[in-house]
Design brief:
Helix 18 (506-512) packs across helix 19. It is built from 21 helices and 14 strands. Helices cover 47% and strands 14% of the residues. Strand 2 (281-288) and strand 3 form a beta hairpin. It is elongated and about 90 Å long. By secondary structure, the protein is α+β, with helices and mostly antiparallel strands.
């Protein structure tokens, strides 16, 4: 079967899949080497720490592994073990620098085998692993991940804590050789001083004192060397959307933006982008914890999607990132799986309201109708306007109010969040606001403003909900009031369709409560309802269902099942539910930081959402 890739029909789908993914055989050698490094590293640490392990029957097997006996050899074994553990993950991810470090470390280990243990077999084993690395050196060509200086601080904290814990194990691993009965504080002081190469208060008989001293000194040296290396190595900053990239994306959205309701969210400025060879399509993404996370469908001409997808997969392979797509449509999922051989999993449904079919009349809308009328009787009024029609001072007041009314300490959002309000480049965006003149309005820095919802453009005749915020002192139901106001004002704005929230596992919740649902479906729905006590999965579905929308399925695209936990964790980081940033004093300043909004990631079933707070999810 052949398909067009930006005008090139010469590459068949299976050929491109093999070129991009290179099949499971390409993963075997790095995985084998990484696993071997992990195992040998653990054995070396055990051999360097526990004397009983070195004297056990397993010692005959350990004899052929890297490590040596005696005070100095214990430190060498411990150092080799820690370094191999640090390199193992990078080798599994095909990282070039991990390969280089291992190529240097293994000959050193072979020399240590011969000089300190006179073990020819151990030296040959190290050289055999070295030969395996050299034989398959082309498999280890992945480029570095985005990184910054603060990782040196993280390494110092983590390695320091690990060295402290392992040091306590080393100090307590020789109970028969300890002189006297030192207290826990003495042992801890001995570890802390030993990491700096200073003799501590704990005394040992025989050569054990030298063994412990060398081992603690080696741990301290490793912590210092790795921290200094990370602090002074060249930076590879996280990619940002440049002004030229943004201009090109806006051109694509002007021609093809009506196809996907998530298209405008590609303009988040903390995303990077790859374009197809013809420039007619693009995929935006962010790299989080080694996962190359795209969101929504590719931007641009559907015929050019395969070219952009191939560029995306090539970039993922070049860095050995795990490719994933969050919240793509059914059409997008079909193209992604067909062009790459990836798999797709349905996560839930997006609620889309056709403006022409929306009405507050009828029994189904009674609750919403009554809530809206009650709030209006309490003196609230609504205004729905384009961003370009708002005065600058009012826009600034809305920005400050949205930031102050945020319900979490950190900004959230990625897949369906733009991260900004009132940017002049987003003049077609729509803002609906609720106002109430009362005594509190006179003292409020935001005047009579009580709630805000923000929509981004969805082609020439649609808009997509991006953010909902309200004053906590305002009456309940502000979100319903403003959504109804926006839907009623949509015809005058030329809007025919409105995308609302994403409902996680909506079909399972809906079908599980129907008569005749099977036991498996009922159990699954019961679990979702139980989790909703903390994560409001069911409440988002019911909130969306109030407006009688049509449901559009959304999918996650992934390489294999074992990647799903990692993708889910990366998505939670991207959405802001897991904060891995350094403490504020150590953050780098500069750039154009995005200010994402509070939303739910489709890859994290445990991601919380509060309709009262206005959460938009992808």
């Amino acid at each position: 079967m052949s398909v067009t890739v930006d005008g090139d029909k010469s590459a068949s789908v299976p050929t491109r899949v093999r070129r991009i993914l290179r099949g499971p055989r390409a993963e075997k050698v790095p995985s084998l080497v990484g696993t071997a490094c992990t195992f040998i590293g653990l054995v070396d640490i055990a051999a360097g720490v526990f004397p009983r392990f070195r004297a056990s029957r397993f010692h005959d097997f350990v004899e052929v592994l890297p490590g040596a006996l005696g005070p100095l050899s214990a430190a060498l074994s411990l150092s080799a073990g820690v370094l191999l553990l640090l390199l193992a993950h990078g080798l599994k991810r095909h990282k070039r620098r991990a390969w280089r470090a291992a190529v240097i470390l293994l000959p050193a280990g072979a020399v240590a085998q011969f000089l300190y243990r006179h073990s020819v077999v151990g030296a040959l084993l190290s050289l055999a692993l070295l030969a395996l690395l050299l034989r398959h050196r082309k498999e280890f060509a992945a480029l570095p991940d985005p990184r910054s200086r603060w990782r040196a601080l993280a390494n110092f904290v983590l390695m320091g804590a690990g060295s402290l814990g392992l040091g306590l194990v080393i100090v307590n691993a020789h109970p028969g050789k300890v002189v006297g009965d030192p207290s826990l504080s003495d042992r801890l002081e001995h570890v802390l001083l030993g990491l700096f190469g200073i003799e501590g208060p704990v005394a040992y008989g025989g050569s054990v004192s030298w063994t412990v001293g060398y081992s603690l000194g080696a741990l301290g040296l490793l912590t210092a060397v790795t921290t200094i290396y990370l602090a002074f190595r060249p930076e590879h900053p996280v990619a940002r959307l440049t002004e030229d990239d943004e201009a090109r994306l806006r051109e694509l959205l002007a021609r093809h933006g009506g196809r996907d309701s998530l298209g405008h969210f590609a303009l988040r400025r903390d995303k990077a982008v790859v374009f197809s060879p013809s420039g007619k399509a693009a995929v935006t993404y962010r790299v989080v914890s080694g996962v190359m996370l795209a969101s929504g469908d590719p931007i641009g001409d559907v015929e050019a999607w395969p070219g952009a997808i191939e560029r995306f997969m090539d970039e993922a392979k070049a860095h050995s990132w795990t490719p994933a797509v969050m919240g793509c449509s059914e059409t997008g999922g079909q193209v992604w799986t067909r062009e790459t051989g990836l798999d797709a999993l349905e996560l839930g449904d997006e609620a889309v309201v056709d403006v022409a079919d929306f009405s507050l009349s009828g029994r189904a809308m009674r609750n919403v109708r009554q809530m809206v009328k009650r709030i209006e009787r309490n003196g609230y009024e609504t205004r729905v306007r384009r961003v370009r029609d708002l005065p600058d001072d009012e826009l600034e007041r809305m920005r400050r109010a949205a930031a102050d009314w945020r319900g979490t300490d950190t900004e959230r959002g990625f897949s369906m969040a733009l991260g900004r309000i009132g940017d002049p480049a987003d003049g077609d965006a729509v803002i609906a606001t609720a106002h109430k003149a009362d005594d509190a309005a006179d003292s409020s820095p935001y005047g009579d403003l009580k709630a805000i919802i923000h929509f981004v453009p969805w082609g020439p005749d649609g808009m997509s909900l991006e953010l909902m915020r309200r004053d906590r002192s305002a009456d309940p139901g502000m979100n319903e009031l403003l959504i109804v106001a926006a839907l009623q004002a949509a015809p005058s704005l030329g809007v025919a369709r409105v995308s609302l929230n994403f409902a996680m596992f909506r079909s399972a919740l809906a079908r599980g409560e129907k008569l005749g649902a099977g036991p498996v479906l009922r159990v699954w729905r019961g679990l979702l309802v139980f989790l909703s006590r903390w994560f409001q999965i069911e409440s988002l579905y019911k909130f969306n269902a109030k407006f009688q929308p049509r449901w559009e399925p959304r999918f996650v695209v992934y390489r294999n099942t074992r990647d799903l936990p990692r993708i889910g964790f990366a998505a939670m980081q991207a959405e802001g539910f897991v904060n891995m940033t350094p403490p504020r004093p150590f953050r780098r300043r500069g750039g154009r930081p995005a200010q994402p909004c509070a939303h739910i990631t489709p890859a994290s079933p445990a991601a919380p959402a509060a309709p009262e707070q206005g959460m938009r999810a992808a």
